[in-house]
């Protein structure tokens, strides 16, 4: 039995709102939304939960979106914040797995720092990167989940504050205060560095 590959939809040049607006007569058009955003959603979930859960949670995100397409507010042209909101809700159901991932990354940082073999330059670069990743993971684990959610949607989901507010269905002021708290805590844990600075901050 061969593997059935999904039909690839080409980008139609239409807004997400226009595509989702056609869903009642053309449900297959949702494939375009999937093609546009699956890589971004999968990447975000993978960074939050790891590769093992990313495939399932990303697929669940699009299944939930397909099942709830009538809830999409067509006043917005882009489905990106809506999809990240669904993904964030699903990630929240895996908070224990996320916390375990951060602890494992922090431990891996300590273990790797003790086991050094091989060419010095290559190992030094790898250790520096892993040390930063380990400290970042440990710092992220210490941030309150609602604040961390906002921080990671901005940093890893590449959403603006307004898009995060739309995704999480909270006021923009709440997003800004959560983001400020999370960044303050993260910078303190990382000695003043903010690896989450975005274009919006510049």
UniProtKB/TrEMBL annotation:
Cited Gene3D superfamilies: 1.10.1740.10, Winged helix-like DNA-binding domain superfamily/Winged helix DNA-binding domain (1.10.10.10)
GO process terms (BP): DNA-templated transcription initiation
Domain of life: Bacteria
Domain RNA polymerase sigma-70 region: 34-100
Coiled coil: none
Domain RNA polymerase sigma factor 70 region 4 type: 134-186
Pfam families: Sigma70_r2 (PF04542), Sigma70_r4_2 (PF08281)
GO molecular function list: DNA binding; sigma factor activity
Keyword Transcription annotated: yes
Keywords: DNA-binding, Sigma factor, Transcription, Transcription regulation
Family listed: Belongs to the sigma-70 factor family. ECF subfamily.
Protein name: RNA polymerase sigma-70 factor, ECF subfamily
């Amino acid at each position: 039995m061969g593997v059935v590959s999904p039909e690839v939809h080409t980008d139609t040049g239409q807004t997400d709102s226009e595509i989702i607006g056609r869903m009642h007569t053309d449900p297959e058009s949702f494939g375009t939304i999937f093609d546009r955003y699956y890589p971004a959603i999968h990447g975000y979930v993978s960074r939050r939960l790891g590769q093992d859960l990313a495939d399932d949670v990303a697929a669940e995100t699009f299944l939930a979106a397909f099942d709830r397409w009538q809830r999409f507010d067509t006043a917005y042209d882009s489905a990106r914040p809506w999809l990240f909101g669904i993904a964030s809700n699903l990630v929240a159901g895996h908070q224990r797995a996320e916390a375990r991932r951060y602890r494992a990354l922090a431990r891996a940082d300590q273990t790797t720092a003790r086991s050094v073999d091989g060419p010095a330059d290559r190992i030094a670069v790898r250790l520096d990167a892993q040390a930063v990743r380990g400290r970042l993971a440990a710092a992220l684990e210490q941030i309150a989940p609602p604040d961390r959610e906002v921080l990671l949607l901005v940093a890893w989901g590449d959403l603006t504050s307004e898009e995060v507010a739309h995704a999480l269905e909270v006021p923009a002021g709440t997003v800004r205060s959560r983001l400020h708290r999370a960044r303050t805590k993260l910078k303190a844990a990382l000695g003043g560095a903010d690896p989450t600075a975005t274009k919006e901050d510049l």
